[in-house]
Amino acid sequence: MSTLEEQVADTWRIHQRIMMFMIGALPDAALSATLSTRGGRDIARQLAHAHNVRAMRLESFAKKQALPLYQFDKDESPAKEKLLEAFEQSGAAMEQYILFALGNDGQVSNFKRGVVPMIGYYISHEAHHRGHLYLTMKQCGIKMPDELRWGIWEWNKI
Q1: 95 neighbors 13 (Cβ within 8 angstroms)
Q2: What is the pLDDT of residues 80-129, one digit of tens each?
Q3: Is residue 25 part of a domain?
Q4: What is the per-residue DSSP string for 121-136?
Q5: How far apart are CA 52 and CA 36, in angstroms?
Q6: What does the alpha-carbon distance between residue 14 and residue 148 come to, in Å, rounded to a whole number?
Q7: Which of 43, 45, 48 is nearest to 31 (CA)?
Q8: Cβ–Cβ under 8 Å, residues 22 and 130
Q9: How far apart are CA 54 and CA 94, in angstroms?
Q10: Packing angle between helix 43-65 and helix 80-102, nearest 10 degrees?
Q11: DSSP 3-state of 26
């Protein structure tokens, strides 16, 4: 694998570690927090949604590779341990998919622009939800630990 391909794969790995760090550092009280007055997703359901979007992308690849992928029910507000387990699974499966695509000239099924734009899409999607989670915590009066506030920006350390 070329240096550029390693950097592409490492970009996903860093993002995955950030997601795992963030979920692990969330205060338990934050998981049930929501700004919705009409039954919208609480923080746990937003994270479940992010995992499910990964799992939908990986479904056929995971079956071919016999990789386990749990999908959350639409209304499920999973506990932190279940979220960590699910993100561990989908993160590892996504890494395998990325490595497979890099070995296949960057081609991926159902994403015509290739593996690099696909990675950008997933990182953007999950960053959107991270921002929403942080805003929800702030507006619900849940103190965000400093390690969580600043730790996600430590790309050279994480």
Answers
A1: yes
A2: 999 999 999 999 999 999 999 999 999 988 788 999 999 999 999 999 99
A3: yes
A4: HHHHHHHHHHHHHHHH
A5: 21
A6: 15
A7: 43
A8: yes
A9: 8
A10: 40
A11: coil
Percentage of the chain beyond pLDDT 90 is 71
Tell which residue, 12, 86, 97, has the closest CA to residue 51.
86
- Report the alpha-carbon distance of residue 50 to residue 125 in Å, rounded: 8
Give me the residue label for tokens 């932190």.
80
pLDDT of residue 1: 63
- Rounded to whole angstroms, the Cα distance separating 15 from 153 reads 10
Q: What does DSSP assign to residue 32?
A: G
156 lies in some domain:
no
Q: Please give the Cα distance from 83 to 31 (Å, whole number).
A: 10
Pairwise CA distance, residues 152 & 138, whole Å: 17
* For residue 61, pLDDT beyond 80: no
Supply 100's token pair.
Answer: 């497979």
Q: How many domains does the chain have?
A: 1
Domain residue limits at 89: 3-151
How long, in residues, is the chain?
158
> Is 158 within a domain?
no
* CATH code for the domain of 139: 1.20.120.450
* Cβ-based burial of 105 (10 A; exposed 0-12, middle 13-18, buried ≥19): exposed
